[in-house]
Amino acid sequence: METLIFEEKEPFLERLRELAAAGHSWRTLQLHLPWEVPEVTEILSVPAGGLRFFAMLGGLSGFLGGMVFTIYTVTTWPLITGGKPAISLPPFLLISYILTILFGSLGSFAGFLLLARMPSIRGMAPEQEYGNRFVIIVREGEAP
Amino acid sequence: MESLDPRERIERDVLAAMGRPGWKYLAAVSLCALAVLAGFALWAYQSIRGLGVTGIMHPVGWGVYITNFVFWVGIAHSGTLISAVLFLFRARFRTSFNRAAEAMTVISLIVAGLFPLIHLGRVWVFYYLFPYPTQRQIWVNFRSPLIWDVFAVTTYMIVSMVFLYVGMVPDLAIVRRRFTGLPGKVYALLSLGWTGTLNQWRHYKWLYILLAAFATPLVASVHSIVSWDFAVSIVPGWHTTIFAPYFVAGAIFSGTAMVITLVYPMRRILHLERYITVDHFENIAKILLFTSLIISYAYIVETGLAFYGDNPFEAELFRYRSFGDYRHLFWLMVLCNSLLPLTLFVRRLRRSLAYLFAIALMANVGMWVERFVIIVNSLARDYDPYAWGTYTPGGVEIGITLMSFGLFFLLYLLFLKAFPILSMTELKERL
């Protein structure tokens, strides 16, 4: 395992380009970054990941859950209030809209934890803290 | 001459704010804690004796408690505007304000959430507000705007908390590295094991965009829903379609004023002048001015509608609002929210931080008064002259209102010491 540590971004990106040209991909390299570096995504052609689907799933379940819940509760004991029909779609859509946002946000957060493999006990007390440095770890046996 | 690495300097400067507190900080915390204790004691007294200890009486059933609720929910809005909306629009100056504004959002929602409970009187039956299965299968009325409020404000609070926490995760990993002992362990736990791997960053980037996208419609919808508490009724002065955008603009105006109120002293006390510049304040001042113009326009439109609409009750209410029992508050509102902010058209005044701070304080006063004017005038003078009356808040209500300010500043002061108040990761990224 070879660990390459860089103080500055430019030399790090230069070395990363060389490794990419040599056939390394985002799967064969372990990177630690002090902040998000968009160039890395381009150099290693990192795919977007599936978080959007968690957001969509959460949002959809919130919307449908809101509709089902409001209609179910109002039909369980159909009290007429304010002369409005028992199943009043405008206010029910409002509840569904709010639950879309709530479940969409929580779904996104849960998806992030799952995909980023967090919380990580090992990460809470890492063997090596890299601070503000850019790190490339080339794993042995995983070279192209 | 100092030759510290700029990234190290950011960490040092921001984390210095989390150091051992000085006597001024402790004095401020004690003062706020005292206000909170006194307020909770008054709430306990009110719970035992009943709402009769307040000034709330027929016909004014919504007094300063609902005023406070609407005010504090409004304060929350600018936090989401600065953190989510400005993020989506790639406004660089947001980095200086976003953490403070996000914390302000969560804290003001906590404070706001207390007021419906205080206003209930019988607070121990608060769970009636939520839909829960009962033996008789009677559920909440989803056609009622008060239930929309419960859903909207609770959702807003949860989403804001997630957004604030997610934004802090990379910074908490830095704090973990800098602290030892028990605090270090707590921050390690809170950092969720963040080590800045490529896999973490690629999903984090998407998470932040998605949360910003989910939070952005909340800026418009939450205070629209709060405004519908009033607008769906047929009470003169409340029953108008402009209430939603009018309330949202007012919310952003008051929230922006509160951000300035918090950040100006914080910048001086914590020596953050290097990161929060006069240019940044000028940009925030422009938001303040812009939203002030929108609410001034709303004041004119609603008055115009009242007289153009040929509804005598509506016209009388607007006459009463301007020249009746609460006229002094009405004109104070116009002065603080519409006239004084116009001076921010002058660039020199916009860039004078002490002046901007004074304008922000006046805007806070003006917006609280605006909520009071809207709520109380309409209830004091609706259709039937036999049901007219006036309202004066009692000592309990004033004490509990002061408690809300004490609680807000107390939680904010505690946040300052417990978490990094600027996003170190974003500041480094922008070097």
Task: Find the count of extended strands of chain A (DSSP E, 2+ residues).
Answer: 3
- The residue-averaged pLDDT of chain B reads 93
Mind summarizing the main beta sheet of chain A?
Answer: 3 strands, antiparallel
Q: Work out the helicity level of chain A.
A: 40-55%
Subunit arrangement of the protein: heterodimer
How many angstroms does the end-to-end distance of chain B come to? 20 Å
Biggest interface, chains and residues, is:
A-B, 64 and 58 residues
Alpha carbon gyration radius of chain A: 24 Å
Largest sheet of chain B: none
Radius of gyration of chain B: 23 Å
Distance between the termini of chain A: 14 Å
| Alpha-beta classification of chain A | mainly alpha
Beta content of chain A: 5-15%
Summary keywords:
heterodimer, A: 144 residues, mainly alpha, 5 helices, 53% helix, B: 431 residues, 72% helix
Tell me what you see in this structure.
Chain A has helices at about 10-20, 40-45, 50-75, 90-115, 120-125, and strands spanning about 1-5, 30, 135-140. Chain A has a three-stranded antiparallel β-sheet, covered by helices on one side. Chain A has five helices and three strands. The longest helix of chain A is centred in the C-terminal third of the chain and has 27 residues, at about 90-115. Chain B has helices spanning about 5-15, 25-50, 65-90, 100-120, 145-180, 180-190, 200-230, 245-270, 280-310, 310-325, 325-340, 345-350, 355-380, 395-420, 425-430. In chain B, α5 (about 145-180) packs across α6 and α8 (about 245-270) packs antiparallel against α13 (about 355-380). The longest helix of chain B is centred in the middle third of the chain and has 34 residues, at about 145-180. The relative contact order of chain B is 0.17. The chains are: A mainly alpha (about 140), B mainly alpha (about 425).
